[in-house]
Amino acid sequence: MALSVDSSWHRWQWRVKDGFPQSASEFTPLLSTRRQSQNYNLRQQRVVFPNNRIFHQDWGKISRRYSGNRICTTKYTLLTFLPQNLFEQFHRWANLYFLFLVILNWMPSMEVFHREITMLPLAVVLFIIMAKDGMEDFKRYLFDREVNCSSIQIYERKEQSYVQKRWKDVCVGDFIQMRCNEIIPADILLLFSSDPSGICHLETANLDGETNLKQRRVVKGFSQREALLEPEHFHNTIVCEKPNNNLNKFKGYMEHPDKTRTGFGSESLLLRGCTIRNTEMAVGIVIYAGHSSKSIFTQQGPTTALRDKMKQKIQISPFYSLGILLCLFSGHSLWNRTFEEHPPFDVPDANGNFLPLTLGGFYMFLTMIILLQVLIPISLYVSIELVKLGQVFFLHNDLDLYDEETDVPIQCRALNVTEDLGQIQYIFSDKTGTLTENKMVFRRCTIMGSEFSHQENAKRLETPKELDSDSEEWTHYQCLSFPSRWAQGPTTVRGQGGAQPLRRSQSAQVPIQGHSRQRSMGRCENSQPPVAFSSPIEKDVTPDKSLLTKVRDAALWLETLSDTRPAKPSLSTASSIADFFLALTICNSVMVSTTTEPRQRVTISSSTKALGMSLEKIQQLFQRLKLLSLSQSFSSTAPSDTDLGESLGTNVPTTDSDERDDSSVCSGCYSTDGGYRSSTWDQGDILGSGEGPPLEEVLEGPALGLTSPELCYEAESPDEAALVHAAHAYSFTLVSRTPEQVTVRLPQGICLTFDLLCTLGFDSVRKRMSVVVRHPLTGEIIVYTKGADSVIMDLLEDPARVTDSNVEKKLRKIQARTQKHLDLYARDGLRTLCIAKKVVSEEYFQRWASFRHEAEAALDNRDELLMETAQHLENQLTLLGATGIEDRLQDGVPDTIAALQEAGIQIWVLTGDKQETAINIAYSCRLLDQTDTVYTINTENQETCDSILNCVLEEVKQFHGPRKPDRKLFGFCLPSEMPSTASVDVVPKVGLVIDGKTLNVIFQGKLEKKFLELTQYCRSVLCCRSTPLQKSMIVKLVRDKLRVMTLSIGDGANDVSMIQAADIGIGISGQEGMQAVMSSDFAISRFRHLKKLLLVHGHWCYSRLARMVVYFFYKNVCYVNLLFWYQFFCGFSGSTMIDYWQTIFFNLFFTSVPPLVFGVLDKDISAETLLALPELYKRGQNSECYNLSTFWISMVDAFYQSLVCFFIPYLTYRDSDIDVFTFGTPINTIALATILLHQAIEMKTWTIIHVLVLVTSFLMYFVISLVYNATCVTCNSPTNPYWVMEGQLSDLTFYLVCFLTPVVALLPRF
After folding, report:
1. Pick from 1261, 980, 1277: which is nearest to 1146 by CA?
2. 656 is in an annotated binding site
């Protein structure tokens, strides 16, 4: 993205040209000290006054406008619970429909059942849901009360001290004092931290699920405070943006009494719900409280309802049932017309008058609706939820979806979309971490046009199982063997100004460079949790032999630098290699802690003082070590640093408390701001000896017991971790990082401490990261930049501007060779990064820093201004080299993709990687095949893009023919007619590759229709260099325009928008945190699990639920029709031949459990067959189990069975004198037997549970009927079912009818 240069930059140039001595900050409107008092716009910004004596009046006026910190997440109160809950439940049209029936049944002219009986089903459903909602809301109330009553230290103005109060007493503008392990009560701006560097460590697990630490920094100008912040001395006003739900962005400024401003961002905001870690004390001022805090504001936003395709069809099906009722009533009307006069069963009123035909017909219609209300199953919705719950249970307990390595099973975070897993038509997948392991392994690099292939490292990676073996060759090439030099105490650390005393942020104890390998015992032997990016395959890099010698020259070159003779701009190999590895070490956000206690600061116990020796002795020792030849240290016979460290022993030198604190600053615990953790095992032994023994004795003496803690690297991304590991392999070791400085240990053992002037973090728009440092030896200000080659190569200095022709030729040669190597790396499937640098003058940097400061303090267009400042600095770069990092495919990815494509699923891979890299991975994972015709579209011109799409479409249609769209009727998909081809086998398969720039042209140029038309002919689509926003736009485009079922799968925070845009979102619980998992419907640990999840469980869930829904409508229609046929014999009076309670028991007890078991346990096809024949998955895509034809076939079957079940008993008892219930009892028994046997035929899998449920349901009918008929004497006056069942069981005709009728009814099913 290119932004126009702001006029403020030219304003700087104008001031310099006209000779203004003042700096930019003195004249800019935002930073002017002569600016008049500010009138704040409270509608567009939030103003926070501190709650102290000076601002008390302003605080009192403003704080009333802002919400307090008390939260209330409950939906109801005691007074509103009943009316509000009923109001919500009657928003469901099914409940409203049955309420309408209850009201109708209370009208005397249309009463069919007893009024209480009609109310019972609805009352039960309403009560169950009401009880569930009430329990959930009561739990929310208890949680709210617990949170609101939590204690916290709040500054009390009257007492001028911090007092303990409750969370709900916190107000905006209050000063809050927090201690380690306390939860943050509101969104707080950090003003003080007990950490010497002004860092506060947070655990954000409550927000994003990530257990690793983040760091927040004190607002600029407050980090140097040694004493605790005094609220009464805080005289600043805070202006920031209005509350919003963006957790990752925050902007504002602090206005000082002199009207100057200091900007701050999200790096200084402590979010509510986070936990303070490894920081003894932190003090801040409340910015957002209660429901205005970002974490709660996020939960209040609009949520997208999950698109349950099956439920949408179920909502339509009852209308078909209503249509059946209308058809039945129409048949009744036609039958009435056959009578010349009034039908004999019509009864006149008291005056002898008959009701008008229209009114009578209307009453009859309402009476039939009441009588046949069972036709619309109110219990179906409850049954569906229970079935889905059972499906999720078995899904969660599938061992094939359990990852033993991470001990993580599948997580089902959404219970209402299980059947949609069986209807997926499009899959949108991320690449890195989803298809690949997200274990970045350093493979190759190119420096100044020279390529270093690292063949030894490649051989090591080919045999990953042997990586933990202690081979001699691996040990030999692991580290460089420079003589280590101590740089502490009276000796010095090389820094700016040559030799100078130690500063606070430098290490008082720098261990010798070394490496200690640990044997792999299958599991970690320590109790620490595994750290991301810490496996041996990621940490250990075998150096390239040819590069080792060049690194030696680079180390010697660094020895010659000093501030008296600054390094001239040079293209020498030694200087470039040194800058290359310094950039790998410095240009990142990696923080250093220890592996033994990765979240604790490094301190040295006072008990170790007696074991140490004086700093003078150490200096003398290293003066003698210094006599060793530096060149010999590179020979294969020279002892490694590890051996040297072990030989010298490990006594810790005596240090005072200040020195111990300095040590903790250097190698203490710092967590990354980005949330990634990576470790490298950097074993440096601390030297010690007795009272000056000979050097030979020291070298040969046994090592004493104490060693310094091993270093742990916590990186912002796996790429950063891989580059730091690579630099460590060549003995450029990151030792310490603070917000102000970063310390690097060179191969010689010397430590260089760089002043960290500015960090421009990586973002998806710039696609690069830069750090601005002051070189400790030359004093130069250097910008180190790394980023995507497509960006960095465009920011390099134009060789044509170089006056020296030789230098120009060399620059062009370097750029050409580097580009060639980048293309080679991309073809090999490696992730590429370019490394560059730039030296800027002091004056230029001061002006740029002033502009940056002004941009940080801005509220309007802050992001654009920050982007602009970065562009002004990141240009005219000098290319140092590039790296190639391998991200291996996960196991089973090719087989999974091939199976999903056979299942008729179109797979799109949306990645931000380089096109060549993505294409290589696509071929490796069988997304693309060598026989495919692959079209690649790369253009930034709309007309060109339109022309290419037309040409490709025309060419593709020549092979495939025109494509006919899918047809739909009442929400049911009808089979689409595929284009006819002469021979399907000879039609080439098509793949499409497109980049992010072309996608922008498509979206902006209204070319989406042509693009989608082309993709429908493609078996796979690969989108490269795509941003997170483009990913979500693509998913929404396909989902909405093609009206297909979509699934998105990813593992990182950049995939969240894509996951939320799809019908089904799946997160992979990998190494990139938990944000993708927390935004998903299902979470798996490996991409290969997607195969069984969709092809097996998806098919089962869809098939079970679809057939269960069809069965529900079948059994209700079948049973209701029995009552309808009887109306022809009772004059459509609404009378029934079955007892009212028996009708209720029929659905409540006798036929309720078998469909549930059927929907949870039935397997129409075995898992082995579904995996072996992925084509079977297309049944779900085509809705074969639940479509218009299957629905109406079941309805016809239900009509036939109801006719048989009614008229065979009718013909049997036609001339008898039995009463109405004696006639209805065989019909009821036959209907139950037929319906249960019908389900037994539908079942494809038989278990003991199926048998028990069916038999128990049938026997329960007889038990309940016998008990009910024996005890009910006057239950249904004037007719009562007393002793009816007992009498039928003694009649042989009853058994004969009950046996023959189900056989005839089910005969078509055989």
Report:
1. 1261
2. no
